[in-house]
Specification:
The chain has 10 helices and 9 strands. The chain is about 35% helix and about 15% strand.
Length: about 300
């Protein structure tokens, strides 16, 4: 059966002619939304691990993390090319020399063919973009901007610390540098309706970005969202709701946008709710089944009146 959306594996095979896997790297970074520059509380859904592996605190260097990742993923997926994915916290939030040292170390590891760098739209300067552009001349470089929502009211309520215009400006500054742009969007944010989420799809699709990651908002321990959930002030999306919204979201995105992720990967020991978030394979299968049943596919309804 033909894939109803442009997935990351297809993109990598087109570009490299083989299986390519991303290896998560924890470089011990922080975030202006946690170190006091913007706030000390962080986003309401983020705990003090910042969605990372904790590898830096265990004393593992970037090289060691990549070597371990290569060994595991080459056995599991028969991959022999890899992307170093700087994931935890804000991976452009450091002095330029520090960033260059981190990126250079990653690219020096054998069979690392590119970088994927998770960051915030308010944490990428012209010198940083110049550095990434220099890598992009010979390597694949993805810059992953955490957006979460295009609605400023939502961004304020989750203590994001930037607005939608900051994302638009970052995209514009990154464009035409040979750097691939990926947006992170969270579905199920407090106060957002289905229409709000699909409006985000429309707005992001109009920006001509290269890729997107969709995440379910799940509740993890040690966050303000966990407190809201326990007090009865937040309710998670159920699995069927999430599947239906994702499929409609994909219909509103241009077919050229690489769908890098359709749901997240919570740490089992940290997850509070919903329990179904741990069943990633089930969720992905349900999305494909729903799209097949409804004749849905990426880009199907780019211009449509009511949502």
């Amino acid at each position: 059966m033909k894939q109803p959306y442009y997935d990351l594996n297809t993109y990598f095979r087109k570009k490299f002619g083989c299986r390519v896997q991303k290896i998560t790297v924890d470089a011990g970074m922080t975030c202006p939304n946690r170190d006091g520059t913007l706030s000390k509380e962080g986003c309401i859904f983020c705990n003090d691990r910042g969605s990372g592996t904790g590898a830096f605190q265990m004393g593992l260097s970037i090289t060691e993390q990549l070597m371990r990742g290569k060994e595991t993923l080459s056995k599991r997926y028969k991959a022999n090319k890899f992307i170093a994915y700087f994931q935890s916290f804000t991976n452009t939030y450091a002095p330029l020399a520090t960033l260059k040292s981190h990126y250079d170390e990653a690219l020096a590891v054998e069979n690392i063919v590119g970088l994927s760098i998770g960051t915030r739209p308010d944490c990428v300067t012209t010198p940083i973009l110049d550095l990434l552009q220099s890598y992009a001349e010979s390597r694949l470089v993805w810059l992953e901007y955490g957006l979460q929502s295009t609605h400023n009211k939502t961004l304020q309520s989750i203590n994001r610390g930037h607005d939608f215009s900051a994302f638009c400006k970052a995209v514009e500054n990154t464009r035409h540098r040979g750097i691939q742009i990926c947006a992170h969007v969270i579905l199920g944010l407090p106060g957002e309706t289905r229409a709000d989420m699909l409006e985000t799809a429309r707005r992001v699709g109009e920006l001509h970005i290269d890729g997107i990651k969709l995440h379910l908002l799940y509740v993890v321990k040690g966050t303000r969202l966990a407190s809201l959930y326990e007090q009865g002030h937040y309710q998670c999306l159920d699995q069927d709701e999430y599947v239906a919204i994702v499929c409609r979201f994909l219909e509103l995105l241009p077919p050229s946008v690489v769908i890098q992720r359709l749901t997240g990967d919570p740490h089992r020991e940290e997850l509070v709710a919903p329990a179904w978030a741990l069943k990633k394979s089930d969720t992905l299968n349900l999305i494909r089944e729903y799209m097949a049943k409804t004749d849905s596919y990426q880009g199907k309804t780019l211009v449509e009146a009511p949502i």
